[in-house]
Here is the input.
Amino acid sequence: MIKIIENALSESEISEVYSKITDGAFPWYLNYEAQHLKEYKGKTFEHYQFNHYLFRHEVNSPHFDYFNEIVNKLCKVTKTSGLLLRCKLNCQFPDSRSVSSNNPIHIDEHIPHTSLLLYLNDSDGDTIYFKDGKEFKRITPKRNRLVVAKGPVHHCSSNPVNTELRYVLNTVIIDK
Here is the structure.
């Protein structure tokens, strides 16, 4: 199941989140994305992106408390409950390879979970979902659009081509 919720946060909340992550003092870390599902290997390309891990099995950031409040609001809106497994921010920059190929196609976890993907700005660089090796859904990033996906589901991001940067808050919650 994939569900889209427009305007998941209030205008002031999404503006505050965007201001926080685009402040020159906010720490971003270069990361190499290479996690492929074996059936897609050779059909995708590996790439660099910036990440900020807020939580990965434990708190990883001094900014966690702020973003955890945001995640709790998203969980309330979506009626999602469970164990927080991972919460991170992604910042992708333009890569023209996204026009003809896909970023690494992966699943977030092998056990039942809910992925919450909040787009923090308008951009190109769709999120693409796959079933039986074929694309079945494509979602364009729109500021304050929340994508709720029940996993495991095969998917990938796309780097923007025409937009300067693509910002996303990515959260994985293990279902109860």
The beta strands are 2-5, 29-33, 47-56, 82-92, 113-119, 127-131, 134-139, 146-151, 154-156, 166-175. The chain has a mean pLDDT of 93. The chain has one domain: 2-28+47-175.
